[in-house]
Design a protein that fits this description.
393 residues; Beta-Lactamase; Hypothetical protein af1432; alpha+beta; 7-stranded antiparallel beta sheet; 3 domains
Length: 393
């Protein structure tokens, strides 16, 4: 653009555009004229329909200037969506907090501000674990985050005035699905534990009946393991009772065990009932059943963290399990109970590719793996029940 010509123009006539002038054109040309007159660099934002751009205008020489355009349509849309989402979350009565993988707070709703007794600016960028405790102890951050999928926990919030509040928190991890991305957000949904209404007894009975019904669906697809989930649930529940779990955690174990293999619905029947050795591809399909089961249940609002048990019941303490390769305390205790019960029942029961083994084989497997791949305390409790004559039938 020639600066002397632009500076002389009182109106925009005489500048050939080849089309009717728009508001964006007008603002752009006005900015060009201002820079031509003053010589001062200027940045403006322009929009036309759904198109957004940022324009930097500066003098190139005494007689010329240049404009540099950067499209910001995607960025503008993202900002608009974020603003909408923030407004929705802030209008919700639910207390919501989000952190990055390192536990730094990156979002907190207005309801969560009130629950924490702190202003938003005091919390953003801080480690959530400065204010949240698990049974009074500081949370071991990474294991807590890794095992947080669908997990409902009782936590303790430490407020600014020194008081504490026990809350129920539903923890979910949202991982970036873009190729090559390896970041995640951790979402916490809090509710005052004392204010939460208990599930009506009739509703709880209905939920448990539905879980029983879902459990039988797998048996129809996999007749060779008919009753497997019920037997695992029976043993896992007995272990949980023996270990003194609370009624709510006991229900988590019982109902989670009843559905732990529901993902096998997605596996072809001919693979489930194949009498010979599985191929690598067939075994891969079998292994996918835990993730398939999790996807079936993750959107269903249940009073217990059943979906996480379904997802993680093949995890092992040494990280050799699947699908997440969790280790040690990263695996929730309820899941560790179901895992031991599942292994014991699988060994002593008939399979399409082999007859049932004696109990000694199951005892040997659990004893050798105790503390290494299976929780040692859970194994001790399980074998104690077996030695006392516990029956799966």
């Amino acid at each position: 653009f020639e600066t002397d010509r632009l500076a002389r123009l009182l109106v925009l006539e005489g500048i050939p555009l080849g089309r009717p002038i728009s508001k964006a054109d007008y603002l752009f040309l006005e900015a060009l004229r201002r820079v031509a007159k003053t010589g001062r660099e200027e940045t403006i934002s322009l929009s036309e329909g759904e198109y957004f751009e940022e324009v930097l205008i500066r003098l190139l020489s005494d007689r010329q200037l240049v404009s540099i355009h950067r499209e910001k349509t995607t960025e503008a849309r993202a900002i608009a969506k974020l603003h909408t989402a923030k407004c929705i979350l802030d209008s919700s009565s639910e207390a919501i907090l989000s952190t990055d993988e390192q536990g730094r707070i990156i979002f907190i709703s207005k309801s969560a501000e009130k629950l924490f007794g702190r202003r938003r600016e005091q919390l953003l960028g801080e480690k959530a674990f400065r204010f949240i405790r698990d049974s009074g102890d500081q949370i071991r951050e990474i294991p807590f985050l890794k095992s947080g999928i669908g997990e409902k926990r009782l936590l303790c919030i430490h407020k600014e005035d020194g008081s504490t509040l026990q809350v129920s928190a539903l923890v979910r991890t949202i991982r970036d699905s873009r190729e090559g991305a390896d970041t995640a957000l951790v979402i916490y949904s809090f509710a005052d534990h004392e204010d939460q209404n208990l599930i009506p007894e009739s509703a709880e009975r209905t939920i448990k009946s539905l879980i029983e019904t879902l459990s039988t669906v797998v048996e129809v697809r996999d007749p060779y393991t008919a009753g497997h989930q019920r037997r695992v649930s029976k043993l896992a529940t007995a272990i949980a009772i023996e270990m003194g779990l609370s009624p709510d955690r006991l229900d988590s174990v019982r109902e989670g065990a009843l559905l732990h293999d529901i993902g096998k619905i997605s596996v072809p029947t001919e693979i489930l009932s194949k009498p010979g050795r599985l191929t690598e591809n067939e075994w891969s399909l079998i292994q996918n059943h835990s993730e398939a089961g999790f996807r079936m249940l993750e959107r269903i609002e249940l009073p217990w963290p059943i979906s996480s048990i379904v997802l993680q019941h093949h995890e092992r303490l040494d990280g050799s399990g699947y699908p997440q390769g969790l280790k040690g305390r990263e695996i929730p205790f309820e899941t560790r109970i179901v895992s031991v019960a599942d292994v014991f029942e699988a060994i002593v029961s008939h399979r399409p590719y082999r007859p049932a083994h004696e109990r000694l084989a199951a005892i040997t497997e659990l004893t050798q793996g105790a503390g290494r791949i299976y929780d040692a305390d859970v194994v001790d409790c399980c074998l104690s029940l077996v030695n006392k004559g516990f029956s799966l039938d």
